[in-house]
């Protein structure tokens, strides 16, 4: 009987780094005690990977798209669609999606607080009220709250364009901007016309909203207007399951990665206590991986975010400690049978840079038949001498499908 | 305070080679004593590079274009434009440029000497006279002498095309060829019509030119006609400084590389005594690098040509000796602070082939935060086990900008 192999790609967000003087010239991943990752390097075939291309600084979103086999230069039309999908709006190809702020406006449209006093509570009710707008012309208007003062707006209907300007004036004390088309198309005209009305209506619907009446009473700036920016058209990406003939799910902590998974049509598994920070509940994440790997999924995409957060904060100790904690997750996932298991990062987030860089990341593939190499540690430098040499994110799904024996031959 | 890092790419033209029996199986770079390059390998991250693609034999021009981040298959329209720029014609996008010979023609147009007796003196005066042509129709005609019997011709005006044939008959004793359009476009017709008149006029203007009267008196063949070949349209390449937001300069010895730099809009630094041969003045080149690196340039492209010349000549001893001399230049450039320094070659010019080959070249990057690897010698084979693995010329600027912290993130 042929065993049907499963595939797991586990991405430790921003784990890779650069050598640091304070670690005696080691990287955090080199310095961390990672017996399980090292064991995986020993049992697998190793290499370094450029998520997009050598030297290109990837976002987590564009890196994941590339690793899943989508060309980010084609598919990534801006952050709006992925953010909207990430907060749970079931976006559809052709939708125009925006990132929005709940802001505070005076009667004449002057923005007095771009973040409405960093409002944290009640934005779900504000979004619910905004959704009573329903249709503008033949276009459906969909609001959804995100974290804090953030929200998303999706316009769905015929003849829309993402070639329109932002309403957000970027500075307080200025009036919000009238949205205009960035080209002369009737689509851009229609979209900007509708959006300008939506903004005006948001003020009408929110200015005396109970949530805002209460805020005003407490001396807090009311969240009485919505300012969209970063228009992007939801791309027509071929669904992942159809593209690869796989049944797939994504276990990710952040809306950004969940948004990617949603747009390509993967099932999204929520994990309780997954915060996306170094305080996340790794036990729950581990259990979710182990459980879902036994269900009828062929493929799991896993993203664990804490190392990236520590990198952005420039917090070396937290980064090292979190990598060591993640190592325990790896140890348990390695015990799964009949699985090709790929461990990597989406990009480097060096402590010394506090942002993503274009340095390649280490990658290891464990599973039956791989050409095990001499590498027996999992880190940036050891991986560079591995049997995979240097590959790209866009190679990974092809390599995995080939190992899973799910590829078809090109030619005879 | 954040230190603004500079970038230097130093290209030792044609330095890479193949193993040679007479060196006991070593390459010239392996055999040469290069303590400074080896030190740089030890301090840096190493790899091999294909300037264009594995196995493709690059010209120095196409290799440099690729390393600077321009796709040579898009930008390199032929040698004419780069040669014209290299001899100092300020070419503009859309110009049609030709390489020309000063030749000797008889009254009926038969070419009796394609190189006019390899004329060396007075071609500047011939070019000056040819430039009195001024306009043909609405097209400006610009001549400029190059080395020996060579010259360039640039046509500047509306409605021109590079799809036209050569005038050079390639064999002596034949009449020069009437230029014809290679397609049916009115642009090709116009360009060939003008070019045929320019060739005729060159004969009229040169046949009794004082320089030629004197040559005839001395029994030397007169340089009495100009034969253009290799039409190319000057590409509309995005200026380097704009593309990367850098202030850049090029220190190069040959017109070919200076032409590349000029077409992409870099400042060109002339160095006295830089011959492009093994006899070049490396002290002056070193001083120019050290001086210009302290000026307000962000980026220097350096090309040193002697090793390529020795390779073309098949002169092993000269190649090894020149590499050893260049090593001293590297030693001094390595002392510069706050610089990312990339040392490489543009292509191999193996002694045994006496021409460029598609073998990859070694490359090392030195500077803060690079993932220093175990390589401690700088040559073709050592580099192949370095931390960069195998990259392409088109990756280099992306990698450098990322290290210089001048990249922007693609995505979130």
Give a written overview of the molecule.
- The structure is a homodimer of 412-residue chains.
- The model of chain A has no long low-confidence stretch (mean pLDDT 96).
- The two termini of chain A are 26 Å apart.
- In chain A, a hairpin with a 4-residue loop joins strand 6 (139-145) and strand 7.
- The first copy, chain A, has 2 domains: 6-76 and 235-403, Alkaline Phosphatase, subunit A; 92-233, no CATH class.
- Chain A is built from 15 helices and 14 strands.
- Helix content of chain A is 33%, strand content 20%.
- By secondary structure, chain A is of the alpha/beta class.
- Chain A has helices spanning 28-31, 35-43, 60-67, 72-75, 79-86, 123-130, 186-206, 210-217, 240-244, 255-263, 282-294, 306-313, 316-333, 380-383, 393-403, and strands spanning 6-12, 45-50, 96-105, 111-113, 135-136, 139-145, 150-156, 225-233, 248-252, 267-269, 299-304, 339-344, 361-366, 389-392.
- In chain A, the strands form 2 sheets. Chain A has an 8-stranded mixed beta sheet with strand order 10-9-11-1-12-13-2-14, with helices on both faces. In chain A, strands 3, 4, 5, 6, 7 and 8 form a 6-stranded antiparallel beta sheet that branches.
- The longest helix of chain A is centred in the middle third of the chain and has 21 residues, at 186-206.
- Chains A and B meet through helix 3 of A and strand 14 and helix 15 of B.
- Chains A, B: This is 2,3-bisphosphoglycerate-independent phosphoglycerate mutase.
- Chains A, B: It catalyses: (2R)-2-phosphoglycerate = (2R)-3-phosphoglycerate.
């Amino acid at each position: 009987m042929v065993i049907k192999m499963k595939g797991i790609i586990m991405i430790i967000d921003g784990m890779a780094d650069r050598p640091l003087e304070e670690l005696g010239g080691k990287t955090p991943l080199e310095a961390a005690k990672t017996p399980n990752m090292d064991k995986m390097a020993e049992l697998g075939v190793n290499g370094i990977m450029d998520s997009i291309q050598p030297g290109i600084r990837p976002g987590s979103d564009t890196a994941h798209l590339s690793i899943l086999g989508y060309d980010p230069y084609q598919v990534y039309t801006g952050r709006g669609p992925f953010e909207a999908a990430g907060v749970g709006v079931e976006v559809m190809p052709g939708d125009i999606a925006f990132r929005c702020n709940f802001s505070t406006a005076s009667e004449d449209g002057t923005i007095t607080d771009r973040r409405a006093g960093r409002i944290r509570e009640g934005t779900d009710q504000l979004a619910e009220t905004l959704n009573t707008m329903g249709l503008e012309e033949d276009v459906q208007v969909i609001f959804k709250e995100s974290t804090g003062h953030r929200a998303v707006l999706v316009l769905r209907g015929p003849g829309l364009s993402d070639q329109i300007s932002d309403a957000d004036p970027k500075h307080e004390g200025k009036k919000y901007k009238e949205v205009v088309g960035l080209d002369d198309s009737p689509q851009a005209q229609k979209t900007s016309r509708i959006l300008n009305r939506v903004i005006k209506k948001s003020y009408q619907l929110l200015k005396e909203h109970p949530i805002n009446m209460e805020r005003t009473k407490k001396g807090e700036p009311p969240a009485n207007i919505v300012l969209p920016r970063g228009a992007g058209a939801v791309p027509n990406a071929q669904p992942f399951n159809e593209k690869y003939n796989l049944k797939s799910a994504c276990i990710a902590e952040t809306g950004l990665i969940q948004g990617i998974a949603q747009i390509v049509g993967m099932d999204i598994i929520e994990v309780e206590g997954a915060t996306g920070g170094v305080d996340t509940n790794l036990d729950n994440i581990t259990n979710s991986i182990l459980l879902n790997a036994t269900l009828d999924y062929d493929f799991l995409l896993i993203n664990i975010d804490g190392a990236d957060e520590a990198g952005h904060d420039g917090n070396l100790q937290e980064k090292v400690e979190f990598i060591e904690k993640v190592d325990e997750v790896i140890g348990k996932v390695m015990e799964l049978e009949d699985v090709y298991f790929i461990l990597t990062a989406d990009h480097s987030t060096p402590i010394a840079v506090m942002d993503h860089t274009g340095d390649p990341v280490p990658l290891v593939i464990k599973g039956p038949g791989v050409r095990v190499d001499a590498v027996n540690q999992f880190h940036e430098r050891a991986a560079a001498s591995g049997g995979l040499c240097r590959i790209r994110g866009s190679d990974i799904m092809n390599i995995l499908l080939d190992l899973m024996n799910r590829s078809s031959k090109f030619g005879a």
